[in-house]
Each structure stands twice: as C-alpha cells, then as structure tokens.
C-alpha cells in the first residue's frame, strides 16, 4: 500500500524563505515611513483629498491621545508595551533599527503636519508676517533666550489659529 503526499509550491517556498527578524522589520518600516514622508513633502497638494484627510486623522491621533478613563488606560498600556519592547530590543541588540524607525516615524509625522500647515493660508500669512517683522529689526534686536523664543513661536501659532 502506498500513500501520496502533496505539497504545494507555496508551502515549499515558505520552508526555505528566511524568517524576518524584528530588526529587519524595523528597517523595513523605517524605509517605508521615509519613502512616504518624501512623497508627502514633495506632493502634498497632489494627494487626493480623502487620503490627506486620513493622514490628518492619523497625525492628530498620534499627537493627541484619547481623553477620559479609556484614554488613560490605553496610554498606560501603550507605555507598558513600549517599555517592554525597548527592553526586548536592547537585549537583542536591535537599537539601531529601532532608532531608525523612530526617526522615520517622526519625519513622517512632521511631513504630514507641514502639509497641513501649508494648507492653512491664515497660518502661512501669520508666519510670513512674523518672519518679516523678525528680520526687519534683526540688527537692532537683543538676543532672545530659548524660553522667550518658544513663547514667541507659541504666540504666533495662537494668533494664526484665531
């Protein structure tokens, strides 16, 4: 009596295909985030409105955590998971890949926020006026501390939002 065993070609490929380590996954995600950031930086106006809206929702969800007890719980779980992940990464020696991923994610987020700012004409106008005012009195002005500079930038942002 004979038995036949059938194995599909895809099963064979899975056997010989190397497994992706988490470090290479971080590198892959970093590359994708950087590529997307480049596209957003160069072509924000050409991105369809629906896609821009999704990108805005994504960016605001990242920078504005959810409110209420559910938001606190989600934030606590997120921090616990991040701490565990960072510990695991440190043990495995994958810090470089994670740092590259974090930098690419930050670049992507900044690209989206810059695109949003470029859409807001009032913000652009207020920023231009502030820059003109700053450079007009450049040679006669005194040095500004870091705190004063932050307060000045914050005031410009609030003025643009009004």
What can you see in these coordinates?
The chain has 162 residues and is mainly alpha-helical. Helices cover 78% and strands 0% of the residues. The chain is built from 7 helices and no strands. Helix 2 runs parallel beside helix 5.
Keywords:
single chain, about 160 residues, disordered N terminus
Count of runs of 4 or more consecutive helical residues: 7
Average pLDDT: 76
The radius of gyration computed from the alpha-carbon positions, rounded to a whole number of angstroms, is: 24 Å
Low-confidence stretches: 1-7
Helix-and-strand structural type: mainly alpha
Can you tell me the overall shape? globular
The counted number of beta strands is 0
Helix content, binned percent: over 70%
- What letter string, H or E per element, gives the SSE order? HHHHHHH
> How far apart, in Å, are the first and last alpha carbons?
85 Å
Question: How would you characterize the largest beta sheet?
Answer: none
Instruction: Tell me what portion of residues adopts beta-strand conformation.
Output: under 5%
Secondary-structure blueprint:
Elements: H1 9-16, H2 22-43, H3 49-63, H4 68-92, H5 95-119, H6 121-136, H7 146-161
In short:
The chain has 162 residues and is mostly helical. It is 78% helix and 0% strand. It contains 7 helices and no strands.
């Amino acid at each position: 009596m004979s038995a036949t065993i059938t194995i599909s070609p895809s099963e064979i490929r899975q056997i010989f295909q190397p497994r992706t380590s988490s470090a290479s996954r971080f590198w892959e995600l970093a590359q994708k985030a950087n590529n997307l950031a480049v596209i957003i930086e160069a072509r924000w106006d050409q991105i369809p409105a629906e896609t821009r809206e999704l990108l805005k929702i994504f960016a605001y969800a990242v920078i504005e955590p959810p409110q209420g007890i559910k938001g606190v719980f989600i934030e606590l779980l997120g921090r616990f998971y991040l701490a565990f992940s960072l510990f695991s990464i440190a043990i495995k020696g994958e810090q470089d890949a994670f740092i590259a991923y974090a930098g690419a994610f930050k670049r992507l987020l900044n690209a989206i926020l810059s695109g949003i700012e470029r859409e807001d004409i009032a913000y652009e106008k207020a920023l231009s006026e502030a820059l003109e005012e700053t450079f007009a009195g450049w040679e006669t002005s005194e040095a500004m501390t870091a705190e004063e500079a932050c307060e000045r930038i914050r005031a410009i942002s609030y003025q643009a939002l009004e």
